Amino acid sequence: MSNWRLCHIWDWLMVEAPALGYSTEMLADAYGGDEALEIAARTGCMGCPLASRDVALDYVLSTEYWSYLKPVSRLRSLYTEWRNFANRHQKNDFSKRQAQKGPLTLEARLKGLEDVLAIQAEVNLASDKLGRPRLDILNAEESARIRELISLGTYPNGWDGTEPTGDVLLPEVYGDGSIQPLLWEVGT
User: Fold this and answer.
1) Could you count the other beta carbons within 10 Å of the beta carbon of residue 100?
2) Least buried of 31, 62, 76, 181, by fewest C-beta within 10 Å?
3) Cα(7)–Cα(164) distance, rounded to whole angstroms?
4) How confident is the prediction for the chain on average, in pLDDT?
């Protein structure tokens, strides 16, 4: 679909998809309606770290009908926080990449879960009052499973949670097994 021009997207959103029974009104709003070229003719995933601004989400939230979803805009800052090295483990393994950043710490996962559920609850409180569609980022089963995995200390293959966090400086390990020690300690 990368070869679609703007006119193809609009034909699909406004003619083809509705004819097949797909409701595309909100998606068309996200693309900017009739002002698509000026607003958000092409958009990416919500919260994309490669975009300096989430134009499509900002536009949707500016509409009266969807404004109750405003707490969703806080997800972007959560994604940024999760990339913070202090929230992730790291390895110093020459066979992979030096100071490879890995999974979130269990504490960061739990805080992230709580933050996402708080945003979802805030939106759903407003949606219930307004009679609007509810938000389902994580359902009860998914949330319970995440909590279970956190409580079990589950990490992806090759990680066990004993690795230092990514904000800790590590000596460099070379392919021949030699180690370049840190020349100074931070804070000294």
Assistant:
1) 15
2) 181
3) 51
4) 83
